[in-house]
Amino acid sequence: MEASDGQGGEGDKPLEKVTNVSCLETSSSASPARDSLMCHAKGLDQDTFKTCKEYLRPLKKFLRKLHLPRDLPQKKKLKHMKQSLVVLGDHINTFLQHYCQAWEIKHWRKMLWRFVSLFSELEAKQLRRLYKYTKSSQPAKFL
After folding, report:
1. pLDDT tens digits, residue range 42-100?
2. What angle do CA 63, 49, 131 make, to 5 degrees?
């Protein structure tokens, strides 16, 4: 008997990234769109998903900017993505500092970036690296 993990096999399609942000804006009652989004949130259990969603809810505007139209020039896309990642990454770091115990930080950092990756074509690790690179290459504004 084969285990179906959504990868490989005949007739199986690999899971694709969620690009429809409106799924997150459904009501609190369970709906097919919400279940579909949870299927794509690989590695996020339902409680973790809800925590990430609620904490990042004020930043929906920046999450949307991670997935921009294809016809937008590459430079503009990159600019919006970098700006959004700085805001999102700073917000994640604030959460980690204020709400997490030392032993929880690694877990929640991973989960929050995984949630952010649902709104982008990039993986969580790639987004975090881009955030760190963008953050380190920014000039200090108020010294």
Report:
1. 778 889 899 999 999 999 999 998 888 888 888 888 888 889 999 999 999 999 999 88
2. 40
Which residue stretches of 57-123 are H helix?
60-64, 74-99, 105-117
Residues 6+ apart with CB under 8 A from 121: 17, 67
Distance, in Å, from the CA atom of 37 to the CA atom of 106, rounded to the nearest integer, reads: 24
Only one residue has tokens 């973790």, namely 48
Q: Judge whether 91 lies within some domain.
A: yes
> d(Cα 44, Cα 110) in Å, to the nearest integer?
10
Instruction: Answer yes or no: are the C-beta atoms of 111 and 52 closer than 8 Å.
Output: yes
Residue 101 lies in a domain: yes
Is 104 among the domain residues?
yes
Residue ranges making up the domain that contains 92: 46-137
